[in-house]
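PT: before anyone asks, these are the final sequences, not the draft ones from last week. 921 residues across everything. Please model them as a single complex and drop the result in this thread when it's through.
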Amino acid sequence: MKGRDIISAFDFAREDFMRLFNEAKICEKKRTLRIAEDKMAITVFLEPSTRTRLSFTAAMLKIGGKVMDFGGIEASALMKGESFEDTIRMIDGYDPDVIIIRHKVEGSAKMAADIAEHPVINGGDGMHEHPTQALTDLYTMYKTFGKIDGLRVALLGDLKHGRTLSSLSYALSMFNDVKLYCIAPPILQMRPEVVEKIKDKMPCKFYNSLEELDEEIDVLYVTRIQKERFTDLQEYERVKGSYIVSPTLLSKLKKIPIVMHPLPRVNEITTDVDAMPQAKYFEQATNGMYVRMALLAEVMGLKIPAE
Amino acid sequence: MKGRDIISAFDFAREDFMRLFNEAKICEKKRTLRIAEDKMAITVFLEPSTRTRLSFTAAMLKIGGKVMDFGGIEASALMKGESFEDTIRMIDGYDPDVIIIRHKVEGSAKMAADIAEHPVINGGDGMHEHPTQALTDLYTMYKTFGKIDGLRVALLGDLKHGRTLSSLSYALSMFNDVKLYCIAPPILQMRPEVVEKIKDKMPCKFYNSLEELDEEIDVLYVTRIQKERFTDLQEYERVKGSYIVSPTLLSKLKKIPIVMHPLPRVNEITTDVDAMPQAKYFEQATNGMYVRMALLAEVMGLKIPAE
Amino acid sequence: MKGRDIISAFDFAREDFMRLFNEAKICEKKRTLRIAEDKMAITVFLEPSTRTRLSFTAAMLKIGGKVMDFGGIEASALMKGESFEDTIRMIDGYDPDVIIIRHKVEGSAKMAADIAEHPVINGGDGMHEHPTQALTDLYTMYKTFGKIDGLRVALLGDLKHGRTLSSLSYALSMFNDVKLYCIAPPILQMRPEVVEKIKDKMPCKFYNSLEELDEEIDVLYVTRIQKERFTDLQEYERVKGSYIVSPTLLSKLKKIPIVMHPLPRVNEITTDVDAMPQAKYFEQATNGMYVRMALLAEVMGLKIPAE
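LR: through. Structure below.
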């Protein structure tokens, strides 16, 4: 994938996922590599982010590379009225080996990639996409089940605003026999334009609550429902309880699935789930670093040494 | 000390101090080492700090390692409602070789160490402890006097709120024949629970002002008295003068001690003390970096090459 | 230039510029070097800055070195009342191989250099100087014209408040037969103390607008005019149009010069200039990184390997 931009989960082909997973496993085993010693990444997080930035930074350091952070938007020239285009052109001019960008506007990562000569990785653009989170999520499923084909994945919570879930759905749709269960209050169901892109490739069923779910699932992917998304607060009060995952709620399912979450978790998964073997959300964050080590290496044209 | 957490000054034994001092001397002589090239520290400073963070960062870089900073609390997921426990678990999942943490709550470093699998170093937890400052302070005394045993150390200023002084007192109590002189306005005297831990190991005398001190001392350790600690501002106005260390005030002592300060200094030591050979506070900051090089190496199981 | 402080453009001699330009060219060709692997720079930007900080950071990383950032002023001990002198002494005590400082007060870099034992590079001190921007600017002219001698350089915009333009003028004055054209509204003309330092070495002509310019120029160096500099807003409204550089405005000149700008650009150069071969401002930012690689190496006593 040398020199390629990673803007959407669709920028990965099925075989890219499989190769990256195998490379991530090697990274995890070796812990550190010295393949990127002359390489520099620039992280440009124009929207607050801790974990995506840390994950990429740790990944770059652990393959031996260097990271330069653009700094917060408050202190930047963007606040002096500089255009996004000028900022990207300037950053690109520092000859980074890869640019990782997060921005609150949909399409900003694509715009950056169009301007920059160096490869751009989308670290989240508004509600649009977050392809490396999808990579992380699939890697976690792959490590657990040894495959992605045939998995039954339920998405729970706010499916409307999460870029994580769009990218995850796109990624899953590239595999065979995956079934998707979208569980959300009607006003927070997956956006039509997201469904449009996957519905011909993967069966999707829609539910209003987890209790309605009538089939066995392998994965329960939880996201938080934010109070401020509701115009009708009574509606919020009515639904919030069914979107808090607890051992009790899980035990009502036909089979206990693994529980995933992009983090940070607030109260949508109770802490007594943490000790269950099915709780995968902390491992998921760690997996994200290993699979980003693999991705950064590929994008910069570096070889992960065979085991 | 490979893999050990450093939460309290009591986590060092007397022989740990002596070994670290010798290693720090080698670090100071060599200036840089290449022993930590595959190692990564994560610094997590959830309370504003410049110098402890810089000191650890410089130390890690100078032994050849890499540092990833968590970033300020404002931008972090903690602000989105994530629990401290989840944050630590996530950080620990990035497989750092050491975690350095500062937090305003007493006991937070201990809590982090209990959660994390990787070693945790306490960079200051509320009013509780700051063990590496104590290490720095003792190293400075050791470099000056060639020993810690038998030193007579006076602490001056706000002895109640300073975690620095608790840790320093604990550290000194592990040596032989050390005498401690606690000089503070009554409302800012050392907390009973701190005194309790040292009083059987080391004689402590209490004074209201430096003028009352009737014995020779080797070390005068100064800390700032903050106006806002006083409910009675007249009381503040009355005492503040006796807590400003000047060449004149020093000359009234039976013997001029070395003057130490954890920095930043505001006006509690007048700048005309800076040129006196007894002024050790800037050297103290530098010593802190060298002794942290030694400590980081030990905690990560790395060998400082013999001279 | 090993161990030297770089406070003013006058700290460079003509032959320093030429040697640095040749070294910068080698850096640009090689992209990365491994000559500074045991070296550490500390960046201290006490005034918001993105690009100077990034440029120095990228430069240091690309010659193989490490960078430690002091962090924003908000979080620092300076906010607790520590003096600038104490801060510099502390930073200097961390044994950095070079200190890069920006501060809003004129003369602060000089003061830092007087205190610090390690070399200090001025990254901008108030309205005073910004010597490495001048280095960047001259390198860009040199790359374009193969020489600095004999160039005719017009400065356009706010010539009063820009440290960039003072340093650039000083630097140009060291070369032969350079002519300077200062184009600004009367209240924003170059300060007398700046003119004083150059007028005997280099002919300077003063204009109120670009339309008045009656000679061919090689370089048009544009800076922004900020509304808030005017006490009389009608005056601002009257002049602002003539300080916006567009293809049309450029086509009215006897010969189209190269267009330079220290960036960030807001609207003082229209974006349709960007595609013109004369637009050099983005290349200029990139050049800044390469020439800083050369400068950092020289100041730290490191040799750039011959091509």
